[in-house]
Amino acid sequence: MTTFKYSRFVSVLALLVGCLSLPGFGGLAPQEELLTTTAEPGRPGGRLAIGEPFEPKTLNPLNAVDQPSLDVIRRTMADLIHINRATLKAEPALAKSWTATPDGKTLTLQLRRGIRFSDGAPFDADDVVFSFQVYLDEKVAAPQRVLLLIDDKPIKVEKLGQYTVRFSFSAPYAVGERVFDSVPVLPRHLLEKEYQEGRIKQVWTLSASPASMAGLGPFRLKSVAPGERVVLERNPYYWKVDSKGQRLPYLDELSFVMVPNTEAQVIRFMAGDIQAISPLSADGYASLAPDQQKHHYKLYDMGAGLEFNFLFFNLNEDTEGRLPEVARKQAWFRDVRFRQAVSRAIDRQAIARLAYHNRATPLVTHVTPGDKLWFDSSLAAPSQSLPEARRLLQQAGFSWKPDGALVDSHGTRVSFSILANSGNAQQTQSATLIQSDLSKLGMDVHVVTLEFRATVDRILQSHDYDVAVMRMANGDADPNPVMGILTSEGSTHVWSMGEKKPPQWQLEIDRLMQQQMITLDFRKRKKLYDQVQQILAREVPALFLVSPNILVAARENLANVRPAIMDNYILWNSDELFWRTPAGK
Amino acid sequence: MRQRHVFSWAAWFLVTVNAAALLAGFVAPYNYETQDRLRPYAPPTRLHLVDCEGKFHFWPFVYMTRPGGESLTEYQEDCGQRFPVRFFLSGDGYTVLGLFSGHRHLFGVDLPARMYLLGGDGLGRDQFSRMLYGAQVSLFAGALAALLAMMGGLLVGSIAGVYGGAIDDLCMRVTEVIIAVPPFYVLLAVRAFLPLQVSAPVMFLEIVAVLGFVAWGRPARLVRGVVLGARERSFVLAAQGFGASRAYLLRRHLMPLAMNAALTQMAVSIPQIILGEVVISFLGLGMSEPVPSWGNMLAQAQQYHVLTAHWWMLLPALALVPVTLAYQALADVLGSRLQSRI
């Protein structure tokens, strides 16, 4: 009898254990494999409010392309392998480790066990496979898809175990692990049904209820006040702890407050409505610099970031003959000597000094000195030389009338407009300085300022412009994300979109960029990328002007502020930020 | 007596300001686009009679300023050399109304010193010179657009008042629509149709046309009211009795009365239209850099550091005050004269 009772007890216990370990029962989850950070341990509590220039358009990573949306989503969601913004190196995130095959075609990721989404649901390989299935689905057309195509073929994803996933590339892919940065893992338990019904892009709008959303980021959605602010609260299931074993993040709340322009952000910062500005404009920096100690805030100048301002000529082919005036001017723009002359006439130092209060670095290519690994230090930013510019123009068949006006070989006055975004004071000032520089060569240059959308529409859609100034940022300190700008078929190859007959030097850039993408050895890649930079410096399809310094402002008692040169400059380690004094006072 | 005094002061002030704007090339010491890249946001230059050593001089002079201190915009006077203020000195070339050109300026100082009477902007351009050139756009666009609006109002208002009936109804409904149209959107639409590269004179005419187009509604209603009232007056009825045609009545009797009303309305609307131009340029839809207008000059003062550290960048806004007051004083006087005639 006793034996029977004992065996029955063991059976019941075994059954109970078996049932509890089933996922549907919540399971006897494996022990949490948490990541321990090395940052200074802090104290929990307090709120942080930061300004955003406009309202996020969505909270759905499958739709998000605007910066405010990305800023919020990157705080609520997490990626498998993350680029540390401080070291610019790939480091473990949801994947605790990975191994690559020697041919560079396969990566096997070991996922963290026992961690949970912000709604308490467990995370495993099924979530990863589901996420990449969604991102790679052509019908979904997620913005991440293009990043996950190697050699025009999608990455293959296989589940090898509950916490093991294998990714296969169709061709060797250099720094394959960097692909995973900013590709957030989606919660399968919340989105699978919507995906199967083809509604996945319609969910997680700004009006979605916080209960319908979950992520693996340090914060989760608390509330949205349309047009005013988005409030996030601490995710109690977050998978990082500090060296004292305290679970991150420290802050109870993180708010994104809509403040329409950088000047207003400075005023709200001074008033204490927001406690950090990222990024801060050079003008804002100049305004705030004198009162740092008096008003207890700190400004950070991180030097050149990955952002670059550039001027480019409209070299788009007008096959339909819609824009005869532009086509006429393209005869000048297509002559490399004309482009070189314009480049030598521009005073980049003056742009850095006057438009950016000396907080910018003159450039020769799109690779900024901030991108230390890839910057070709043998190339120097061109200094202004009007005699050299005149010599180049003369060589190209241009001449000057007695009144100093520059004319081409047919006697036509060289006259064109520079398009700039009216909402960006630095861009308008840069264009005005360039206009003044070029007028010294006898060119009749007009600065045209249009609001941002009209400017982008002309550049990307109608191609109805002569010359434009624009600002862009490299998405990563690696050559691969700039493929879109530099290669002739790139989606942001703004100076000549969808080029049908690229010139020889452009074909060479295409070849070198493809080559570096599949080269695994860093030194060989660097050599290839250096060659690309040298071609750009010689052929000047675009004139790279300056790289603005990364500037941010934060309250003095906000700790662990370590601004980075990749976005978000200040919130990239929002999980580590804490207030030294209680409640952020 | 007091009214006449106010009128003459206002008239003389406006004549002086407009003449200075017309002769901006001569009166301004520099061209509006002349930059001094080593002196961004230079403060107003101090005129001295006493030098650094305490010695008195009968002729005013300036010292050259050099950047000093940590900030790019802190300057110190260099006492090493005095630069006396000179009249009719040679400088940047200019043309007046495209009719004659010159390079002599009313006053200035020799290079390398610079005389920033009202300070300099972020690119080291002289604010005083840019304000004078900017007045050409802001004041003349206001006056011309108001003239255009008055003529349009006079025409439509007179026709509506004289003919009455369906024509009156039609004219007034169109007028109401015009009054309701915000100029900002008209300008956006016109800008979308124009080519990207527009020369300064074409842009000026565009601004005049748009501001004039949206401003003729109110004078039209006023003129119609005056004509309707005058139609019943004895001398008009007498003329009608003698067989005068409508055209004759309009030309001989009604138009002179309506003209006074329209002139008064014009004086009222000029400052409003000037402000309209300032707003349009402030929003980046008017004159493009480097051509100045008071609006695009003020656009630079949007920046917080400009507001707090470089007060002289707000002077174009200050200049609007006496101009507006002067036009309003004129309107008051004209209005009371009209009242006494009616």
Strand arrangement within the widest β-sheet of chain B reads 1-2-3
Mean pLDDT of chain B: 84
Report the portion of residues of chain B in β strands: 5-15%
The largest sheet of chain A, given as strand count, sense and whether it forms a barrel, is:
5 strands, mixed
Q: Specify which chain pair forms the largest interface.
A: A-B, 39 and 27 residues
Radius of gyration of chain B: 25 Å
Q: Numbering strands along the chain, what is their spatial order in the largest sheet of chain A? A: 22-21-23-17-24
Structural class of chain B: alpha+beta
Q: How many distinct beta strands of chain B?
A: 5
Record field, number of beta strands of chain A: 27
Q: What is the succession of H and E elements of chain B? A: HHEEEEEHHHHHHHHHH
Q: How large is the count of helical segments of chain A?
A: 15
How can the largest sheet of chain B be summarized? Answer: 3 strands, antiparallel
Helix content, binned percent of chain B: 55-70%
Strand content of chain A: 15-25%
* N- and C-termini, Cα separation of chain A: 69 Å
Q: Which geometry of chain A do the CA atoms define?
A: globular
Uncertain regions spanning at least 5 consecutive residues of chain B: none
Q: Gyration radius of chain A, to the nearest Å?
A: 27 Å
- Overall 3D geometry of chain B? elongated
The CA-CA distance between the termini of chain B, in Å, is 21 Å
